[in-house]
Amino acid sequence: MHLPFCASSLSAAATVISDSYLLCLSAHPIATKAATASTLAWAGDAAAQAVEQNRRPPERRRYDARRALSFSVFGMAYTGCFQHGLFAWYAEVCDGSALVCLLRDSEQAQHIQPLLAAAQKTVINQCGAIPALYYPLFFATTGAIRGETREQTSARARRDFGPLMKRNLAFWLPTQFVQFSAVPLELQVPYVCVAGLAWNFILSARALASEAPSEPPPEGVVVPTALGRPERSRITVQLRAEDLPAAEPESPRSIKKVE
C-alpha cells in the first residue's frame, strides 16, 4: 500500500544524491574522484576480508586494518588522482586514426572510428599502463604500508603478478572497452571506481589467500592456498627416544676377545 510512496521517496533521494555528487565532481574533480576511489577500494577490501573471516575459526578472525589502509591509499592515489590525468591524455592522443589507416576499407572504418579509438585506449591501458605502472605501484604501496621488507614485497610481486594479470585482462578488457566507448570523460574515473569495487574484492581476496597463516592450523582444517585451492594440514609425528624399542643385547658368541 505504501510502495508507490517509498519508491518515489527513494527516487527523489537518489536524484538529490546524484545531483550533489555531480556538482562536487564539477567543482572539485580530483578531490571528488580521489575520495570516491579511496572509499570504494576500502569497501572492496572489507567485503573480501568478511568473506575470508567466515572461513576461519572464531578465535582466528581479525580485521586487518593495515591492509585496508593500503588498498584505500592506493585507490586514492592511482585510481582517483593519476587516472584523472591519464584518461584525459588518452582522449587527446588515442582517436583511433592509427587503426583506421591499417584497415583496407578506410571509408568504412571511419564510421566505426569511435569504437576503434575505444579499443586502442583499452589495449594501451591494459597492456602498457597496467603492467608498467599499476602493478609496480600497487605492490610497492601496499608492501610499504603493511610493513613488508623489500625482499618480501619482491617475492609477493613475483608470486602474484602472473595470476593477477590474467584476472586483470579477463575483467578489465570488456569493462574498459565499455568505459572508453560509452562513458563521458568526466565520469570515467567514477565508473572505474564502481567497477573497481568488484575488482578490489578480487584483488584483496588474492592478497588474503596468498598470506600464510601465522600459526599451524588444527588437524583437519582446510587452509586456502595462494591459488585458492584447499590443502589439508600435514601432521608431523615426532618420536621420542623412550618411544623407540630397546636394542637387544649382543649375544656372548658375537663378542670377540681382544688380546
TrEMBL record:
Which stretches are tagged as biased composition: Basic and acidic residues?
Answer: 250-259
One Pfam match: Mpv17_PMP22
**Gene Ontology annotations for the cellular component aspect, listed alphabetically:** cytoplasm; membrane
Q: How does it sit in the membrane?
A: Multi-pass membrane protein
Q: Where in the cell is it found?
A: Membrane
Keywords, sorted A to Z: Membrane, Transmembrane, Transmembrane helix
Q: Where is this region: Disordered?
A: 240-259
Family membership: Belongs to the peroxisomal membrane protein PXMP2/4 family.
Q: What is this protein called?
A: Peroxisomal membrane protein MPV17
Classification of source organism:
Eukaryota, Haptista, Haptophyta, Prymnesiophyceae, Isochrysidales
